[in-house]
Amino acid sequence: MILNKQVGVFLNLVHNRFKQYLTSIFRKQGYNISPEQFLVMDALWDNGVLSQQEIANYILKDKNSVVKLVDGLEKRGLVKRVVNKQDRRQNLIELSLDAMIIKKEVTETALEAVNHVIKDIPQNELYTFIKVLNKMAENMNQDAKLLELIGSNNKTE
What we know:
Layout: H1 3-28, H2 35-47, E1 50-51, H3 52-59, H4 63-75, E2 79-83, E3 91-95, H5 97-117, H6 123-140, H7 146-149
């Protein structure tokens, strides 16, 4: 298989396998959420109340996907929609008390899962991996600055 094709195949396979793995870990711990729903909650934990568009921008998903993710979280009682008083056409999403209660445990579960996935990979290789992924994102979309999303606390040099 040529290298270019391998890159595409491996990115897709690892992405899908990671989502399956994290979903199974969440379920084993009793959390009926998907990795994407975790990203929505994590964005809200970090930033407070956000509009659906702000969530979409934050997690790099289209607004329609975010609507479906929020619908699922709302059915589980983890978020609620509130009409924006400044713009009644816009819904704001806020976390429920239940979501706040599970924040620490769910976050620890996700971090433990990631730590398992990256075990035995030297830190310098992980930094290189992040840089390569960032460059790929930039090549697809000049506005995609993945390194900015992970914050200045994470050195990639």
